[in-house]
Write a structure and sequence with these properties.
This protein is of the alpha/beta class. The chain has one domain: TIM Barrel (Alpha-Beta Barrel), CATH 3.20.20.70. Helix 10 crosses helix 13. The radius of gyration is 20 Å and the shape is globular. It starts with a strand and ends with a strand.
Length: about 375
């Protein structure tokens, strides 16, 4: 357990660490980078590297989803994003790329005020699937309640239920008569029943603690997101006072994974770091403290051809009542392939994410992702 620090006579707080606070320690052996295996397997799917591209309209559109899939990875399309609200969102994206950043939240609120069209969700899923790659899509908990019945006949291969905080138990007062909404039974998502009935692997999050993660694992989820995404563009700490210290949170959730493995007599739930991953070194540190994979957002905003044109925003920035994000600009550093798989011509950790991870694992002596979770780390 982390040490408790006294805040005052009436309150104590647990010390926690960011990824910036830790570093990897080389072991007594090294390996040839070519002998390192980066493959990540979840449910029936195998990917060549342990990265998911985050469900943000600024970094993932159907074209990017196909391109990442052909590189051996998976990109998650926001099924409540612009591509599910507009038949052709190119004019909206052009406005967002050219908007004054100071007025960004107002423009985003207006752009995302258009309703989600279920037939467009089905069309986007079908288009990506037709390209022969794994289809991953994200919905909010409210979006699952509202849209799942309309798309469950043609679902994505992987479903991510993603929010600032997703819990296995949501308390709400909806009056005397609950309303049935398909498999989740109620106006509030019954996560355990939904996961059981969904017939596709479900990844849920975010969460930031051992106990919250354990409850999410008990729903039957295939994976749990640690953090709440948004990364460089979210302002949740300023607006709500909530912040996830990623190194400690990942380690806590990895401990829940271990204990749930024993509790369930062998069921393994994947831990996915979702937030605070900006550079290649962050990926290595997140995996070393227990993650199975990471969600990448801002690194892909730097790729040529990103839908945001070098701008990044999350859907939390477009919330109609309480935006919790801003518009952030990033310089273009290379192509999508160069950012993910190299080669790199920069020394700042913004390109060749697979190459950097492969070399980090080789220099610390580990041959695959599960072994790498045992890597020794120091605290700065």
């Amino acid at each position: 357990m982390s040490a408790q620090r006294e805040i005052g006579r009436g309150k104590q707080g647990r010390e926690a660490l960011l990824l910036d606070d830790i570093a990897l320690v080389p072991s007594r052996r090294t390996r040839d980078p070519d002998a390192v295996n980066l493959q990540w397997r979840i449910d029936a799917f195998t990917f060549e590297f342990p990265f998911l591209v985050a469900p943000m309209d600024a970094v993932v559109d159907p074209t990017v989803a196909v391109a990442v899939g052909r590189l051996g990875g998976v990109a998650v399309l926001d099924l409540e994003g612009l591509w599910s609200r507009y038949e052709d969102p190119s004019a909206v994206l052009a406005e967002l790329r050219g908007m004054d950043a100071a007025a960004g939240n107002r423009v985003l609120q207006r752009s995302y005020a258009a309703p989600v069209i279920p037939s467009l969700i089905r069309e986007r899923i079908a288009g990506i699937r037709a390209a022969g790659v794994t289809v991953a899509g994200a919905l909010s908990p409210a979006g699952v309640v509202e849209h799942w019945d309309a798309i469950r006949a043609t679902p994505p291969d992987l479903l991510i239920i993603r929010g600032t905080t997703v819990s296995a138990e949501h308390v709400a007062d909806h009056g005397p008569e609950p309303v049935a909404h398909g498999p989740q039974l109620g106006p509030v998502l019954n996560l355990k029943r939904f996961v059981y009935d969904a017939e596709v692997p479900v990844i849920v999050g975010g969460c930031a603690s051992y106990q919250a993660a354990l409850h999410l694992m008990r729903t039957g989820a295939a994976g749990v997101l640690v953090g709440f995404g948004g990364g460089a563009s979210h302002t949740t700490a300023d607006v709500l006072g909530i912040r996830v210290p990623m190194a400690t949170a990942i380690s806590d959730v990895a401990a829940a994974r271990r204990d749930y493995l024993d509790e369930s007599q062998g069921r393994y739930v994947h831990v996915i770091a979702d937030g605070g991953i900006g550079r290649t070194g962050d990926v290595a540190k997140a995996l070393a403290v227990g993650a199975d994979a990471v969600m990448l957002g801002s690194p892909l905003a730097r790729a040529a051809g990103a839908p945001g044109g070098g701008r990044l925003w999350g859907r939390e920035a477009a919330h109609p009542e309480l935006p919790r994000g801003s518009v952030v600009d990033f310089p273009t550093v290379g192509t999508l392939a160069e950012v993910l798989t190299g080669p790199s011509n920069r020394s700042d950790g913004t390109m060749n994410f697979t190459g950097a991870l492969r070399r980090a694992m080789a220099l610390t002596g580990y041959r695959d992702l599960k072994e790498f979770q045992r890597c020794e780390v120091t605290v700065g």
